Amino acid sequence: MSSPSHKSLSGSAFATLLLIAFMMGANHVAARLAFDHGVSVSTAVLFRSGATALVVWLIVRMAGVPLNLPAGQKRALLKIGALISVQSLCLYSAVARLPVALALLAFNTYPLWTALWARTLKAERVEPALLRAMPVLLLGLALALDVAGAASGLGASAHWGRIGAGVAFALAAAASFGLALVFTQHETVGLDGRVRTAATMAIVALAALVGVAGQGGWSLPQAPAGWWGLLGLTVLYGTAFTIMFTVLPRLGVVGGSPIMNVEPIFALLLAWAVLGQQVAPVQVLGGVLVVATVMWLGLRRR
Questions:
Q1: pTM of the predicted model as reported, rounded to 2 decimal places
Q2: Nearest to residue 70, comparing CAs of 163, 198, 168, 195?
Q3: Membrane-spanning residues where (predicted)?
Q4: b/e map 224-234, b = 16+ CB within 10 Å
């Protein structure tokens, strides 16, 4: 992982980060549109990851980045690729079952999982800032998910019967992503981020291809709106990654800036406008708590 910059953000850098967050949020809204019109999760992941891998590999080749990697880094890439495959499939599975913003908010617990994995596998000390933030993050998530079922009016049992599977997929995505971050930080030191991303996306695409084959073939859209969704998720995700690796370095910004954690807020607004998804005011408050806490954690590390 790249070392974060201590410089303040320029206006161009801030606007670019917000654009990436917007496109990533829009990617998930487009994915839900595709899922609602017959596209399977594995088909969506295959289109998205395959296109992104191709674009990033072209960037790598045009930049003349060396591809000779030590055996240890090759093994690490396989592990990271497998984990990101799980994360991609689980997160899209959550988006298919939950309001898009809630799926992303549950996924945004990944800093807790990252700290847990780092403590368990690498014996790293948990930062005091994370311990202080943990109850606020969990409170915000509890409000956003309406754990008691009060906002939905269904009661806890019926509410969790409706959202339980989606929340489980989102948390599984967060756990696998957190573990991937730990392996990235400790086992790919010195590896060019473009090579890492291209290899990871290629592995994810292969995993999705296996999923597509296991389901008997493509699950393509059954209506024009589904085709727009499939095209949107592919173009938005690939474009966001391309900007991340071509524009941000020139602006002196690393890709993992905390500013991009506003993605669920953009997703909330877009899902309301495009899909008609609505959440209660108390859930919006919970979402703001989650996003603000994750951004504070990221800024504290700077």
A1: 0.91
A2: 195
A3: 44-64, 100-118, 130-151, 163-183, 195-213, 225-247, 259-275, 281-299
A4: eebbebbebbb
Which residue in this structure is represented by tokens 């093994």? 75
DSSP state of 302: -
Cα 158 to Cα 147, 148, 149, 161, 164: the distances in Å are 11, 10, 8, 5, 10
Residue (of 42, 47, 26) closest to 230 by Cα position? 47
Report the distance separating Cα 149 and Cα 262, nearest Å: 25
- Say how far apart CA 82 and CA 90 lie, in whole Å: 12
pLDDT tens-place string over residues 223-241: 999 999 999 999 999 999 8
Contact indicator for 242, 56 with CB cutoff of 8 Å: yes
Cα-based distances in Å from 152 to 93, 144, 155, 300: 22, 11, 7, 35
Contacts of 275-279 spanning 24+ positions with Cβ under 8 A: 275/29, 275/32, 275/33, 275/36, 275/100, 277/99, 277/100, 277/101, 279/99, 279/101, 279/102, 279/144, 279/151
Percent of the chain with pLDDT over 90: 64
Quick one: tokens of 265?
């807020």
Cα–Cα distance, 201 to 118 (Å, whole number):
24
Question: Hey, what are 240's tokens?
Answer: 């966001």
Give the closest residue to 268 by CA, choosing from 135, 145, 150, 100.
Answer: 100
DSSP 280: -
Q: In the numeric block, which tokens belong to residue 188?
A: 């790919």
Structure confidence by residue, pLDDT tens digits, 51-69: 999 999 998 889 888 888 8
